[in-house]
Design brief:
mainly beta; 1 helix; elongated; eight-stranded antiparallel beta sheet; about 290 residues; six-stranded antiparallel beta sheet; about 5% helix
Length: about 290
């Protein structure tokens, strides 16, 4: 059975203090942010591709009981205490919370905020209450719990990033790392045609770190993924392709022809003056619609 937890707390309480009602919504699919462009003398609208996604919202419906955390019946008073505890869990407003969805071996997580709660419907005789929380996923996409690292060749066309296979949404916050020697290292997303590159060179032992989500870059000499450990070179990074004026590389899965179960992220890399020690790496979490 699928289940949710919020900040590590099961939303189907182990002792039955509260539980999600049957029929609670699965995480919804996001819609595209509509853009319409029409011109005189042309029927319909001009097609626009690469639309950004809208934030998603869905409801979590709870039944709160009079069970104590030890699993005994505490009656109406305990139901009130359980309702207060659940309200405290859902009432965090100063930060995003981590919502975890699990169905068998499938695990997806998202940073969420609770935007509203319904007025509790109280059944005094049965010592139960019903309440629904409205959950918003501002970042739209659900992610793997942990990041994985892939290593590839520094100068090759259409390499499959095997650790990101199976994604259904774009990965917008990947960490990229080039290991020198390399001159003018660059990496591109095959599906969208976007690229990031640096015109300078890397000496043997130097590493260029690029944080696509934060649009920052640095050169480090240690074996690290920490940009703060190196010299900032953000101003030396160029981005080209769709949307590159306000974002860096979005790694986007492509569906194989006729097989929606085959979803691969393909990247092309280029650099000169490389040798056997040169390489490119990607550290990222898969993303899901």
């Amino acid at each position: 059975m699928p289940s949710y937890s919020l900040d590590g707390v099961p939303l189907d309480h182990p002792a039955g203090c509260w539980r999600l009602k049957k029929g609670t919504e699965r995480r919804p699919l996001p819609g595209a942010r509509a853009v319409k462009v029409s011109v005189s003398g042309r029927h319909g609208d001009i097609p626009v591709v690469g639309l950004d996604l809208e934030a998603t919202t869905f409801g979590l419906a709870f039944k709160v009981t009079g069970a104590t955390p030890a699993g005994t019946d505490g009656g109406y008073e305990q139901m009130e205490r359980n309702l207060e505890a659940l309200s405290a869990l859902l009432g965090v407003r100063h930060r995003l919370m981590k919502l975890r969805y699990q169905a068998g071996t499938i695990v997806r997580v998202a940073d969420v905020t609770i935007t509203a709660n319904t007025m509790p419907e109280i059944n005094t005789g049965a010592a139960t209450a019903r309440v629904t929380a409205v959950v918003e996923v501002p970042g739209v996409l659900w992610r793997d719990e942990t990041a994985s690292t892939w290593a590839g060749a520094p100068n090759q066309i259409a390499q499959a990033v095997t650790t990101l296979a199976g994604s259904t949404g774009p990965i917008v916050d990947a960490l990229l790392r080039f290991t020198g020697p390399a001159v003018q290292p660059s990496i591109g997303d095959v599906a969208t045609g976007g690229w990031v590159l640096r015109s300078g060179g890397l000496l043997a032992g130097e590493r260029l770190l690029i944080d696509c989500g934060r649009m920052q870059a640095a050169i480090v000499t240690a074996d690290t993924w920490d940009l703060s450990a190196g010299t900032d070179v953000t101003g030396q990074i160029d981005a080209i392709g769709p949307g590159s004026q306000y974002r860096w590389l979005h790694l986007t899965p492509a569906v194989a022809v006729g097989d929606p179960f085959s979803r691969a992220v393909l990247v092309s890399t280029a650099a000169t003056s490389t040798d056997a020690s040169s390489k490119v790496e990607i550290r990222a979490k898969r993303a899901y619609l």
